[in-house]
## 1
Amino acid sequence: MQGRTSYFCQSTSRGRLQWAGVLSEQEERRFNQYYHPGEGGNNRGGDQYGGDTFFNEGDSCVVSYEEEPEEGVSNARIPSDATEGQEMPSHKGLLVVANRLPVSVIRIDEDSWQLEINVGGLVSAIAGLRDFQVKWIGWAGVIVSDEAGQQSLTKALAVKKCIPVFLNEEIVNQYYNGYCNNILWPLLHYFGHDRHSAGHGYQSLFDVYKKANQMFADVVYKNYKDGDMVWCHDYHLMLLPQCLKEYNSKMKIGWFLHTPFPSSEIQKILPSRSELLRSVLAADMVGFHTFDYARHFVTACIRILGLEGTPEAVENQGKLTRISAFPSGIDSDRFIQVLKLPRVQDYMKELRDRFAGRKVVLGVDRLDKIKGIPQKILAFEKFLEENPEWREKVVLLQIAVPTRTDVPEFTMEKEWKISDMGIFDQSLGFNALCALYAVTDVALVTSLRDGMNLVSYEFVACQDSKKGVLILSEFAGAAQSLGAGAILVNPWNIAEVASSIAYALNMPREEREKRHQLNFTHVTSHSAHKWAEMFVSELNETEVEAQRWRTQVRPSLPCNVAIENYLKSDHRLLILGFNATLTQSAEPPDRRGGQIEDMELNLHPGLCEPLRKITNDPKTSVVVLSGSKRNVLDDNFGGYNMWLAAENGMFLRHTKGKWMTIMPELLNMEWVDRLKLVFEYFTERTPRSSFELRETSLLWNYKYADIDFGRLQAGILLEHLRTGRISNTSVDVFQGARSIEVRPVGVTKGAAIDRVLQEVVHNEGMNSPVTYVLCAGHLLEKDEDLYSFFEPECPDELHAVKVAVPSIRTAETLKGSSILNLKGENYFSCSVGRKRSTARYLLGSSEDVVMLLNGLAGSGFDE
């Protein structure tokens, strides 16, 4: 049996629970029109459109939408009919994209449809955005396979400012019932996977999920106009932001999750975890109900994707995505005003008479395993056992709405519960629900996990007269907003919930009033309208933040210009880093085997041929300047005609000669043995960290360690170094993204390059100055003095600049000239992978370096 069921339980003299349900066929029909609209609908409890009130997570799902609107009660609706045939004022466009359109659709004949707007939290919230021309995009809840039907429905929905996405039955079953409900929904609520995720069926479900998201993207792009904002909703559309950015990178996109976002340890279970996270990060702003959910998302991006993030933003490939919490609310005025209506006053009187002499404890939930209804009943039963004086003096009224009936697990649970209960027919509409809220003494919300749960808000809004007590699960998002006035409980702790019921029923009026006032102030000041306004306003402002961020990020290297100028130059110098520049791009730090591969640095296979061609060109000198040891460079570049500068330029050789030491005189290395013990100590106590002893430096790397523990240990190590072992030693500390290196003072790549150039000039017998320089590397901040070494005095002006390099062999340098005669237009400094840098340009990764060097090799010297 589907539809809305209300269960009534009261205490008996034996302290047991006697159940009675109130359900009528008329009410069931009304409810199904709302929650299961259309013949092909498989909607889960309304999804997004009323928050927990009527859509978001569907907690308060007891509303009759066929009742005539009462006088004085405003019903939220999508502006449509009132403006039909009239020209709308010029406002900014907002495309609201959700799995379901906020419209109930019934097909009358081939080209005729009956449409009814669903009143709910998201609908009323969006309706309050007066400065935007809003259009809704989503599935209409019905399967329409014929072209004539699709055309007629599209035309009918256009009047309601709605645009349909047509899904067939197979996509609905696999995308919505399969991937969304069986995989994402349980995982987001900490219930893990079902059998599909571990079996061969997972990939097929995910493929259909991707296909459905692409279908939504196609419809959005077709209706998008320059300047529009796109607001995507919920876990059904996690791939949509990336799909849309591939259409138009300038499209301003926000994404909001109406469920919890779990800990990164839960998120790791999902096979498609990385693809989903990266797609969501394509949005300009990502919103959650609570700070905890936002924090979990950022942590997942750091731990799973290996990205850098703060509580406010995550950086991904040079793009900054803003992360923020936006606690939703309700239209509290609607609940407050409806209590003044004569009919509602009559309901309230009937309820007071019916429960005269007894306290009312109320629960309003969907019949879903996340709502904790069994735990609630056990707690109430335990309360009666421990407090026999309350028998016959208290009544528990549980409103439970069967939803997700297409998922067998939930259907069996519903049938098991109904089989143990007596059922009586009685309808309960919106007015009656508000009356019930108003006469309730204690509201009992025991969700095991909830995105927000706005039932608690509804109860508070209707309690301005009685000042009832709210018992609220600490695992509901609303606990962060209403925790000051509510009694927070762990729903799994039956004894705690039972004692909280007793405490609430015996609470003095003065305390009840103080608690209520705290919650009432929050509920009335944080409305659904303000929630939507705040999200859209901050989404609009992300462009300013993004522009500020982009000014700190280097522009991409104009490869065509770099190659063209390379061809025109008579003598070129290429200075290249090694790690993360000429090696293969690093995978996320949780990838198996990645640490072993990182410890064994190897030249990118795509560079073997272009490097051979470039290094054999008599017009081109190539120097690999790296922090790596000599043997590492020998193993990778011994077969090429180039210069190798190891350990940040302290050792140099041409591949046809022997290593020479070119480090500064009087270089003090006495500190090495002392610090070696310190680095070994932290390596032993930080799992998956590594320590490398070089001839001129010490390096501790925690890239593969637990990110939080690694950062903690790095902070302790830095403090120890600065205040202890090296406080009076002539060394510099270099801090990388996930590494700490100690070198002698003055040992940087920029300081070494002049000595390197002297040797290159001397040994190659140059008879003309260098007129083209390409300098590319993934450098630490202190090593970026390499870029400034070649920088002309006035980089914005394209003029010849002679850089006179001090020479030990003055007579052997170029007679009457400098080593460099460099124009600004012929100098290309490139940071590889580091978005914020002093370099002129950016190359995204070593893959971009491969493309660049292949371009230089293909257009240069022919052997």
## 2
Amino acid sequence: MAEAEEQETRSLEESTDESEEEESEEEPKLKYERLSNGVTEILQKDAASCMTVHDKFLALGTHYGKVYLLDVQGNITQKFDVSPVKISQISLDESGEHMGVCSEDGKVQVFGLYTGEEFHETFDCPIKIIAVHPHFVRSSCKQFVTGGKKLLLFERSWMSRWKSSVLHEGEGNIRSVKWRDHLIAWANNMGVKIFDITSKQRITNVPRDDISLRPDMYPCSLCWKDNVTLIIGWGTSIKICSVKERHAGEMRDLPSRYVEIVSQFEMEFYISGLAPLCDQLVVLSYVKEVSEKTDKEYCARPRLDIIQPLPETCEEISSDALTVRGFQENECRDYHLECAEGEPLFYIVSPRDVVVAKERDQDDHIDWLLEKKKYEEALMAAEISQRTIKRHKILDIGLAYINHLVEKGEYDMAARKCLRILGKNAALWEYEVYKFKEIRQLKAISPYLPRGDPVLKPLIYEMILHEFLESDYEGFATLIQEWPGSLYNTSVIIQAVRDHLKKDGHNRTLLKTLAELYTYDTNYGSALEIYLTLRHKDVFKLIHKHNLFSSIKDKIVLLMDFDSEKAVDMLLDNEDKISIKKVVEELENRPELQHVYLHKLFKRDHHKGQCYHEKQISLYAEYDRPNLLPFLRDSTHCPLEKALEICQQRNFVEETVYLLSRMGNSRSALKMIMEELHDVDKAIEFAKEQDDAELWEDLILYSIDKPPFITGLLNNIGTHVDPILLIHRIKEGMEIPNLRDSLVKILQDYNLQILLREGCKKILVADSLSLLKKMHRTQMKGVLVDEENICESCLSPILPSDAAKPFSMVVFHCRHMFHKECLPVPSMNSPAQFCNICSAKTRGPGSGILELKK
């Protein structure tokens, strides 16, 4: 029996959404399960006729006149034998402490579930409906209504007697009733009425639309959404009615309330039940379809739809076809939809089955995503809702996602997801690595392996390195660069690389990688040898990082051959570790490299390598003549005679000229310029630098028979030598190129000199006058004399202690003060007085400026 029940449950879950295509990507809004346990036992022998739902329990009525109280799992908690015939309806108050039951044989019972309070009545006609006051537990609300051919209101009087009154009759059987707060809504053959129990007034009548339908076969479904909103479903029509207060000025003889239909629309199928869901509606529909083979109507599976009401239509949110037991024989009146007030639980009741519909939670949402193989979305949903999900674990979803990607062949994506999913779980990382090994995809997961927290077993990293070493040298080299040497046994990997080098000994990638492995293994000497052999740029970085200067003292030539610039910079930056003398000695057989080193040394410090300046003369002359002259100019330690000898041997005219002038032999230098270079401009420039009249004389004598030289002299000597000296010596009749232009330039230069002198004179006179006025203003200022001042001669106070006595004093512009009698008497030849301290000999700052007498 249990197996059969499980199979039916699975069948229900698998087929609830067949109205949608199986390939549909739209997620259902509800999930379904059968109410089992005691319900299964009841419905095997009996059939459900009605049910009502409280947030604490369920009450189920059957065709055999039984009423069962059930917990939410369907277990029987109480049983009542009410009648031998069908139970028509069960009603509970809001407290769940009182229950009303009516049956087809006219019996009505209202009793307390936990008290002895009870009411019995038997009518001579079937009673279809009953509704107890929502607050029946209160003594002032002991009321209930029953409906057969007429609607009766029962009230308990103050004598504890029950009295009845007719609320309505004459329009056929009462087939549905719902009581909410002070409003009672019921339906008969003609339509729906609403009665206000407080004012004792019927406030509306909503006629039914399709009068062709039998009301007993297609009963009206009523549902209160809240205290003032009634939802009516009848046939295929749905109306949403709002109870509103009437304005005091409009009342007259009318009820204080009225009803406005705010929404009205048609459904595709017949309505068997209604329930609110926030601002949406849940609709249970009875479906009839036409067979394609026989063209006959048959009962299809009922549908549960969630719709969004609009003023004149509705929008379908979801639609599920339900496989309930015996749906082929059921009619529209056999289905009921009940809902719990506290939570969105919906009970679909049929004679042979009770199905519970629930809103799908986050676990259900994840189930659906996993079923549709939307693992990324499922993982994200689980991470967002990790505190609320109960049936799922983020790790399990993640592992399923990785497996799914592997099955699809998306190995790189699967490996990338391992970072997010496996996190710091070393055991899971190792497990996944072995899985990737089985499918020969270790390369895919290698970039994503953890390298710090956590650290996997060395065997894992070695396994991946061996995989790359066998098939991809470049990838192997990349991993060696990226992975710290502490992750694996470097000696094992070094031996493996050596074995491969036996087959391909000149493979640069393997050699470079082996050098890096040696550095991890602190075998820096072997690493340095390989880097130098490969002429690899990282050799300098290796030397600096591991302070290998003691190891490179005999490898300086190799380093210089590889990259002389970097090598020289490194050697000069570390003079304390490798001396200049050692470097020069090592480069003795490679003078071109020796020159590069010494040249860079000289650029840094002109004095540090002074003992090698003599050697550098020949090195510059041999390998770098353009820098020879700057070296000779900047060096104060090179022997000039040696430098002159070398320059004369190599016929370096410019350098020889400089050396001759520096050694004081300017006339020989000028002669060399004129005779060797034949460059009058350079000769004139040289003469200007030396500023020697004899040199100008030599230059004029040398140029006097050379017209081009005369032109050059005329154009340039105007500001240094009187041009008349040159012009007088020019032979008459000599043809001199551009003589006119040269003479004009001489006159212009002379005029320019005159203008400059006049300008300077004006400036000098203006400045002198300004300074004279400033001095005069300064000397005209008063000088403060007080008791603290003393006579610079006798050192007594300058002012007498008795102010009444006459006194005389002299104050000089240098601020020295004397008693007049302390100064020497001026002579007839030099009547001016001067400060003895400043020893001024002419009238100036030290002369007397003030004589005070009293």
## 3
Amino acid sequence: MGDMFRSEKMALCQLFIQPEAAYASIAELGESGCVQFRDLNDEVNAFQRKYVNEVRRCDDMERRLRYVESEMKKDEVTLPVLPPGEEPSAPNPREIVDLEAHLEKTDNELREMSANGASLDANFRHMQELKYVLENTEGFFSDQEVINLDVNRKLDPEDPANLPGAAQRGQLAFVAGVIKLERYFSFERMLWRISRGNIFLRRADIDGLVADEETGRPVLKTVFVAFFQGEQLKQRIKKVCTGYHAAVYPCPSSHAERTEMIKDVNVRLEDLKLVLSQSADHRSRVLNSASKHLPRWSIMVRKMKAIYHILNFFNPDVTGKCLIGEGWVPTNDIPTVQDALARASKISESSIPAFMNVIETNEMPPTYTRTNKFTNGFQNLIDSYGMASYREVNPALYACITFPFLFAVMFGDLGHGLILLLFASWLIIKEKQLASIKEEIFNIFFGGRYIIFLMGIFSIYTGFIYNDVFSKSMNIFGSAWHMNYTRDVVQDENLKYITLRPNDTVYKTYPFGMDPIWQLADNKIIFLNTFKMKLSIIVGVIHMIFGVSMSVVNFVYYKKYASIFLEFLPQVLFLLLLFGYMVFMMFFKWVVYNDTVEGALSPACAPSILILFINMILQGSQDTPEPCKEFMFDGQKSIQQVFVIIAVICIPWMLLGKPLYIMIKRKMNGAPPPKPTSGGGEGHGEDDAMGEIFIHQAIHTIEYVLSTVSHTASYLRLWALSLAHAQLSEVLWNMVFSMGFKYDSYIGGVLIYVFFGAWALLTVGILVLIEGLSAFLHTLRLHWVEFMSKFYEGAGYAFEPFAFKTILDVSDDD
């Protein structure tokens, strides 16, 4: 937890590495994940860098790996999952050559088998379709048609009937083929139109599904035979067949020739089946062999590519015998980096060991906050608002407590908190098994499991305070109220209400939380409204005062001592003298006014805090009946006037204090005023022009004064959501679950189960999920806007070290 108070100290380090040890050094640094390298070759084109050829080799190996993996997915070959901790290290140069050779061999072999397999599949498919054509056209021909339908038969040139000019009206030709059934009817209409009805078309559907040559998916196909007359019409038919992707096959009209051709096709089909089976077995052996090594190969190639990518950030020295690189390193990890460089020099047997120097710089370092699995979720909430400036106070440390507490104030129900606690406990207990799930929505809940766990615990606590369990109260310690009316008075039909005065009916203080008797009171909502409204203002003011106070820690660390008196002091005085005073009046009213005294301090004379506060600001007054008084104590009016005057003075104090201080400081130092910049800078500092400083301070002052009012009112959401949550819970109990108690006998027992199921479903769906998400978002807003805006700048950038673990995790997500 101590590491979370502010980000870690960073050092800009310069690395001097021998070229022969550069690869091993970066590999060791990648395993440690402690260095964020800087690109020293910004102006150099990516294709002109030293290690561009090695990066291209890695790209080529990645391409081969993707192809092999895609082929495995086609054949549904499962890849083994590497257990955590057994990931291979980056390959050494000799392993790189062997790995490249293995990948090239596997890739070429698979591509050759794929090409041969596609050719064999096409031949097998064509042979099958030819067989379908020969078998299904058997009924299209008769013995009488053999004479006139054989388009391939040789004609006797000496026969006068076969002369070129002779009429051949009795002779028909035909074209046979296979077409998709869905295209056949359009195909038939097209043939009818081009021949003007002079084509006789027959078809026979193929039983079962046939593989489509275009997509490979099984489709319905049909065999067709088109009878026609004339060579010109034959050419037209073939063009239509080509347009409709219909396969045309040779088909003799003679029965004997067809029978002989079917036998030949069957023999060729058997040969093709044997060859295809042997090819599939060989392909399966190659893929299974490659699948055993593919996960390791993939990790090795990704690590190798990342190493060469980082090496392109380095600059060679003048002699070319040394590589120079720069990077940010957490000061606590400098020994780790030095050990990694020493190991790399030993592995590569370099004659000169690599070494590292820390160099001074005015550049703002990256922000790095060391977290664990518990604090990581809270840190992510803060980083979503903006990355903290370097060494700025980290709000995540305090959000570990304030975030679940403010959530619980809105979500206060012991039963609903127990549901959250059980769900989070399951995520925590099973976190090793559940960590492998990659579903996005589930990962959001899993990443915030410790946040949900604390929200559940705090909701149980506030549930005890509110004495609320699924809208019901628990009488653990026994009610502190007792009935002082007789039975006759209570049973009087003309009596509508019974008033229990605390002075007469309260005999002790309920030890913890709300007295359960309020569950029966008619003014329950009025009482809880007042209680929760005041509670939300008290919590909000304390939260904001704490946020303003945290700015002192930043001012002290950055040695801006003048800002403590010119910014913090007027801000905290403005907040305390107005809204801190209002909180004081709430406690004073609770303590002084009670039912045990009469006169000006009786509950009937208690003034409204809101009216008192408005009159304090506007310097107004109100008439009060005797014996009541306008103010709660003597001298209150004078004190309020002093507070308002000081609060008003704080406004010009905030507005002009810092700019005038900077102006005087510059005159005393004799420094020339800086020239106004054309923009593009981040933030506003003491080096800006005076005009910009005055404008910035005016904006900051106006924002703070107005936001103090609006932010205080914003904390009323704690009251509003708490009231809405309690009322929704009560409505679900009364309108759903309690309906099962209205029936007697066994029917009531069955209905209780039915109504309980509906009530449980609605409770989890509406009150836990939807209301929980609503309370979570409102809590997030209270931290981002109302709390962090008081001291948090969030103008930094994240520390992104070169780490193989991060690279592999990102690749797995992609």
